[in-house]
């Protein structure tokens, strides 16, 4: 009896700590003076409730202070602000600085992990990192080499470390982590190296692994219940993570999990997407390749999948499904619903019921998208929920060693990870997008552990018959599935947006501009050219009664690799070569935080 | 020579193991570096792999193959068309600076150059068949780009794939 009592009280104590951690974190998320999580809140709104900077006065914005990170690589993610401290992270080597906001940004502590530099070249497309997370007086960093580190937020002292993956087989990390309850939930990168994607929960206090769910494999690996996990309302049945693969191909199946995660505390569900199946040559992996390219809803405590939706079965274009899952409550046909909206790389903007996984909307958010005529929305159809593929743009139907031309969007998607923002004041999503098309030729490759496993050649160019630029910044109605307005941009917009209660939307551009626009009309209200191209995400906080806007500059990432030299359209002939803008004509490497405020 | 031996992970590199096989076209037309053709590939007088671009713009198979392999294996760091990126230097210029042997050595063994603000690290591709079986193709493609005789983008016209290259490819990809 005594033993049982001890046991139950321990359970109660743990549950109590978890609840407290969650309450503290949710409380801080609801406090607009803080920026406590990369995504703004659990719902991934990237919305600031501050309104001192508003559409009337944002034109007067000026630089308050700056900070050099000391690293010249692609700077994704954003700083956090908790209390009087700002936490700034860098790309590899993944330094974390704690800056004292009461003392002109004096460095309170600095943490620099020692990582083997051999991890650098197995990171596809630059050594970016999308930032740290906070909970329970602890800063969580997921390093490039997949070490998860818990740092004392006051001192920078290491509380614990956990090793999440193996860089020698191509497992690396670029993403932030999601603190939920008494756990930290983390993903993995390496889809171009034939790794098998997974999501893992670690105990927040000890770093012990609690559960891990793979993107493919037997049900015991994927944490999929054949009877209770559903796909479009129907149970998935046994072995759904292996039975759409040939032989053992699922073992190097890809489906990595490097995007932005969201969480619904009421449903206790974590939402994220899985990436491309390996290789990029679809003929080498027949079948739907489940559960790559899939939206997952998993129970935060057990990892069990509640529902799944595979957006791009049998990917033929590298349209990873990892982009952010934005959670909103909106009226659909006169009924308030719990919604999940997701702008996929494949060019479709999806809205689902996040309780059940029911598909409500799937519409193109860039009119250039041409690989599909749309998604079958008829629940009684045998192809319900599947995109209808246009044969001309099907690299699988055209086959190996055939160059499929004019596919829109390109492999980097109508949007990559650069996260959108949602304003509850306008009920609009503000979405940074790419406006780029491609030629794609798959061919046979062999797999070597820890080596790139790509198997396709592609050429990219600005969407033809359009404004000639490579990006748009759009406002999207997620319930209707319609573009409200669209701002053409010369380059892909690779920066995360921020919407504010001042009815201003902020985003950065690859030339290095921080731009402020009117949330209703999209009219430009302010721009400032920072020292390097922007692929970071805009954040806002308040200190001593003053509202600030912060953004990291430092060009790089996929955008810096693909666009540095400019794009060419091989179909345009010689006359057009060099006619497209080269990013290198506008900006150079950098690593700087710029913080803005209104004049005193 | 020792360095090069280290790079020869798959043994029979085309061209350098060609003693005794058929040599064609001793007198090639045009002003390019190619002096002769052997087993479907072109070489300089010194026996170094070379591109061959006919007057109507038709590229030899190896140059076309190099375009494809470059954009699968190298492009994710070095940018499209050998032009370089914010992450890694332009290889079309690198092959003008370093000779064929240094090129093969670097690809095989990688580079590590790490300082506080900058990290230049290239992996070792010596064990990667998707790269090493096509290393001569990638080299001649980049050399054509660096010499300024091949425009950006996909070569419009190419020679048919020579049987000798198919045979080499099959053997190389199958071998350990």
UniProtKB/TrEMBL annotation, chain A:
The active site is at 318 (proton acceptor). It comes from the Bacteria. One of its GO terms (cellular component) is membrane. Pfam families: PQQ. Pyrroloquinoline quinone binds at residues 76, 130, 174, 256. Its cofactor is pyrroloquinoline quinone; Ca(2+). Disulfide bonds join 124-125. InterPro entries: PQQ_b-propeller_rpt, PQQ_MeOH/EtOH_DH, PQQ_rpt_dom, Quinoprotein_ADH-like_sf, Quinoprotein_DH_CS. Residues 35-368, 492-549 form the Pyrrolo-quinoline quinone repeat domain. Ca(2+) binds at residues 192, 276, 318. Residues 1-21 form the signal peptide. Keywords: Calcium, Disulfide bond, Metal-binding, Oxidoreductase, PQQ, Signal. Binds 1 PQQ group per subunit. GO terms for molecular function: calcium ion binding; oxidoreductase activity, acting on CH-OH group of donors; pyrroloquinoline quinone binding. The keyword Oxidoreductase applies. Belongs to the bacterial PQQ dehydrogenase family. This is PQQ-dependent dehydrogenase (Methanol/ethanol family). It comes from Rhodovulum euryhalinum.
UniProtKB/TrEMBL annotation, chain B:
One of its GO terms (molecular function) is electron transfer activity. Residues 55-146 form the Cytochrome c domain. Residues 1-19 form the signal peptide. It comes from the Bacteria. PROSITE patterns: CYTC. Keywords: Heme, Iron, Metal-binding, Signal. This is Methanol metabolism-related c-type cytochrome. The lineage of its organism: Bacteria, Pseudomonadati, Pseudomonadota, Alphaproteobacteria, Rhodobacterales.
């Amino acid at each position: 009896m005594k033993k049982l009592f001890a046991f139950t009280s321990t359970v109660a104590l743990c549950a109590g700590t978890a609840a407290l951690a969650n309450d503290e974190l949710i409380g801080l998320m609801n406090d607009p003076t803080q920026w406590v999580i990369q995504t703004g809140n659990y719902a991934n709104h990237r919305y600031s409730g501050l309104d001192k900077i508003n559409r009337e006065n944002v034109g007067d914005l000026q630089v308050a202070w700056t900070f050099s990170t000391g690293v010249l690589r692609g700077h994704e993610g954003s700083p956090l602000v908790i209390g009087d401290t700002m936490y700034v992270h860098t790309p590899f080597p993944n330094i974390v600085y704690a800056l004292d906001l009461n003392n002109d940004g004096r460095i309170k502590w600095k943490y620099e992990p020692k990582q083997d530099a051999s991890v650098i070249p197995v990171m596809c497309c630059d050594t970016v990192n999308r930032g740290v997370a906070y909970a329970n007086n602890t800063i969580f960093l997921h390093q490039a080499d997949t070490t998860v580190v818990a740092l004392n937020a006051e001192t920078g002292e290491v509380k614990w470390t956990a090793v999440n993956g193996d860089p020698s087989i191509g497992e690396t990390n670029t993403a932030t982590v999601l603190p939920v309850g008494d756990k930290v939930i983390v993903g993995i990168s390496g889809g171009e190296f034939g790794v098998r994607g997974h999501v893992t929960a670690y105990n927040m206090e000890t770093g012990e692994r609690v559960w891990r769910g793979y993107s493919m494999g037997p049900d015991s690996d994927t944490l999929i219940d054949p009877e209770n996990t559903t796909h479009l309302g129907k149970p998935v049945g046994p072995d759904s993570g292996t039975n759409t693969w040939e032989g053992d191909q699922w073992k190097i199946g890809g489906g990595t999990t490097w995007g932005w995660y969201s969480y619904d505390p009421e449903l206790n569900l974590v939402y994220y997407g899985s990436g491309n199946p390996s290789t990029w040559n679809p003929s080498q992996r027949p079948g739907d390749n489940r559960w790559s390219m899939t939206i997952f809803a998993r129970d935060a405590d057990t990892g069990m999948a509640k529902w799944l939706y595979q957006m791009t079965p049998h990917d033929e274009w590298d349209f990873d499904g990892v982009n952010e899952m934005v959670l909103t409550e909106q009226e659909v046909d006169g009924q308030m619903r719990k919604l999940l909206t997701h702008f996929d790389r494949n060019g479709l903007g999806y809205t689902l019921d996040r309780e059940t996984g029911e598909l409500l909307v799937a519409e193109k958010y860039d009119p250039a998208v041409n690989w599909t005529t749309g998604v079958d929305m008829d629940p009684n159809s045998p192809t319900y929920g599947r995109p209808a593929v246009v044969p001309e743009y099907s690299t699988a139907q055209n086959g190996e060693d055939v160059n499929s031309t004019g596919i829109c969007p390109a492999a980097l998607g109508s949007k990559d990870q650069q996260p959108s923002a949602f304003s509850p004041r306008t009920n609009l999503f503000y979405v940074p997008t790419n406006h780029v098309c491609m030629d794609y030729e798959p061919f046979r490759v062999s797999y070597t552990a820890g080596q790139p496993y790509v198997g396709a050649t592609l050429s990219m160019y600005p969407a033809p018959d359009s404004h000639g630029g490579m990006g748009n910044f759009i406002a999207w109605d997620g319930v209707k599935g319609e573009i409200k307005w669209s701002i053409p941009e010369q380059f892909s917009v690779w920066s995360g947006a921020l919407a504010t209660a001042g009815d201003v939307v902020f985003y950065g551009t690859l030339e290095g501009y921080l731009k402020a626009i009117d949330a209703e009309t999209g009219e430009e209200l302010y721009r400032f050219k920072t020292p390097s191209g922007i692929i970071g995400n805009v954040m806002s906080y308040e200190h001593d009664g003053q509202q600030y806007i912060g953004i990291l500059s430092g060009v790089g990432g996929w955008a810096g690799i693909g666009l540095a030299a400019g794009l060419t359209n091989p179909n345009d002939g010689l006359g057009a070569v060099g006619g497209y803008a080269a990013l290198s004509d506008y900006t150079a490497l950098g690593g700087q935080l710029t913080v803005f405020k209104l004049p005193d | 020579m020792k360095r090069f031996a280290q790079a020869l992970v798959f043994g029979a590199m085309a061209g350098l193991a060609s003693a005794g096989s058929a040599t064609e076209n001793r007198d090639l037309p045009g002003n390019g570096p190619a002096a002769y053709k052997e087993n479907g590939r072109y070489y300089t007088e010194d026996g170094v792999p070379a591109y061959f671009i006919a007057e109507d713009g038709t590229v030899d198979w190896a140059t076309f193959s190099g375009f494809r392999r470059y954009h699968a294996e190298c492009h994710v760091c070095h940018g499209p068309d050998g032009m370089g990126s914010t992450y890694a230097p332009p290889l079309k210029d690198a092959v003008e600076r370093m000779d064929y042997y240094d090129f093969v050595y670097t690809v095989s063994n990688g580079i590590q150059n790490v300082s506080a603000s900058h990290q230049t690290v290239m992996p070792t591709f010596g064990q990667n068949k998707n790269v090493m079986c096509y290393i001569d193709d990638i080299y001649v493609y980049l050399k054509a780009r660096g010499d300024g005789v091949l425009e950006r983008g996909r070569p419009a016209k190419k020679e048919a794939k020579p049987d000798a290259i198919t045979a080499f490819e099959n053997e190389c990809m199958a071998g350990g």
